[in-house]
Amino acid sequence: MLVGVFARWFLDAGYLQTLLITGTSLEVFGMFMTSLCTNYWQFLLAQGICVGLGSGLLGLASVAVIPMYFSKKRMIATGIAATGSSLAGIIYPIMMRRLFVSMGFPWAVRVLAFLMLGCLVICCVIMRLRPRPRQLTNLIDFSHFYDRSYMAFVAAFALMISSVYVPFFYIQKYALKLGIDDDMACYLLSIMNASSLIGRIGPNWLAD
Fold it and tell me: Which residues form a coiled coil (predicted)?
């Protein structure tokens, strides 16, 4: 997520397509490299760093562009867009579980990489910034550190992010430890993502 600090500067300067193409290239390349990994340090470079950097670039762009097209109901529009990650979180675990069994790890990850490539190419083609003057802002604006409300929000959000994703990584392992069968352990991850659909729409609707 730290890469979002630098991505914001490029977005303000009007380089959306550069962000999208760079993020897409990093994510897809990282996934293909992940399919070849056999050691921990290789996974760290391919999945952790390469895919992580790409996700940081794409994550900012997807959130920042949508509100530019709405003068009203901005939050619900953002919430609807965010449901895409929930839908992917429902489908992908089940899909990957089946692919791991039928094709093995390398080709299962390559299939996912091709799917990601197709979706991201569509994003690169259709996503555009609304016409506006390019703004060359400071890379880091320290004036925000004096805004108490903003800093309180940042602190609260950091604490939330540090904990909210933990169950998604460990729920399957924990379920297996409790004796739940493999298939059901996989479905638990999809069930968790399905429940997040409500959380992505409801609060945003109330915010508007």
Answer: none
> In angstroms, how far is CA 187 from the centroid of its own chain?
20
Quick check: helix, strand or coil at residue 132? coil
Q: How many residues does the chain have?
A: 208
Q: Please give the span between the terminal C-alpha atoms of the chain, in angstroms, as a whole number.
A: 26
13-67 pLDDT, tens digit per residue, is: 788 888 899 999 999 999 999 999 999 999 999 999 999 999 888 887 777 888 8
Query: How many CB atoms sit inside 10 A of residue 67's CB?
Result: 13
The gap from C-alpha 114 to its chain's centroid, in whole angstroms, comes to 17
Sequential DSSP letters for 34-92: HTT--SHHHHIIIIIIIIHHHHHHHHHHHHHHGGGG-SSSHHHHHHHHHHHHHHHHHHH
Q: How far, in Å, CA of 44 to CA of 111, rounded?
A: 20
pTM, two decimals, is 0.82
Q: How far apart are CA 10 and CA 23, in angstroms?
A: 13
Question: Per-residue pLDDT for 102 more than 90?
Answer: yes
Span 121-165, pLDDT tens digits: 998 898 888 766 555 566 666 777 788 888 898 889 888 888 888
Q: Is 138 helix (H, G, I), strand (E, B) or coil?
A: coil
Q: How many CB atoms lie within 10 A of CB 172?
A: 19
